[in-house]
Every structure is written in structure tokens, then in C-alpha cells.
Design goal:
By secondary structure, the protein is an alpha/beta fold. The chain contains 2 helices and 8 strands. The chain is globular, with a radius of gyration of 15 Å.
Length: 127
Amino acid sequence: MQITTLDHLVLTVEDIAAACEFYHRVLGFEVITFDGNRKSLRFGDQKINLHRAGADFQPCAGRPTAGSADLCFITDMPIETVIEHFKQCDIVIEAGPVARTGARGPIRSVYIRDPDDNLLELSNYTR
């Protein structure tokens, strides 16, 4: 077995419309409607499918819960510009900038929360 990339993941949310608005406005993700009226968020070559808590598409995780995710997104935008953008969007920065370790090496990160209280880390590789 050799896995090459992550195609998509599922994020359980309380309010799909609120999640779509937040991820589009704050992170610039494209909102996609597919299979009738299901929603996903696309960025780069990946997407996040949204499931509403209590009405999960089957099959699903054993205990899907809104607010249980901790996700890291890599951006080419300098962290200082990311921080300024968050200020303009009235988004509270929970932590950072701080040094962390990403999949490919050292990163510099800031942390925010989405409407469901999921922790979102926005990062730049430092080398």
C-alpha cells in the first residue's frame, strides 16, 4: 500500500450555511454543491465535505461531532498578512505566531476557531 495524497475529509458542523460562509469569507475556500444539495469546500487539490451533525451522510464516522476537528492549512501568504486579514474579518487569533512542525518540516502558525469551535491552524513553511 502506498498512499499519495489526501483527497477529502469530512467535517461535521451544526450549520452548513454558517460553515460555508465562514470558510469562504475567511479562508477563501470555494463552496461546491454536489449530489443534490450536499456542500463541500474546495481549496487547491483538496476538499472538505460538510455533514450536518445528527444528519450525517452514511457511512460516517462512529461518533461524528461538531467542533472536534483540529486542522492545519498551509498558505503562501505571509503569516503577518494572514494576521491582518483575520483582523479585518473580526476573527480572534487564539495563539501565534508560533513555531511548529508540519509534514515537510518547520512551520510558523497562527490559530483561530471556526463557528463550530474547530481549531484551525494557518501556517507557512519556514524553509
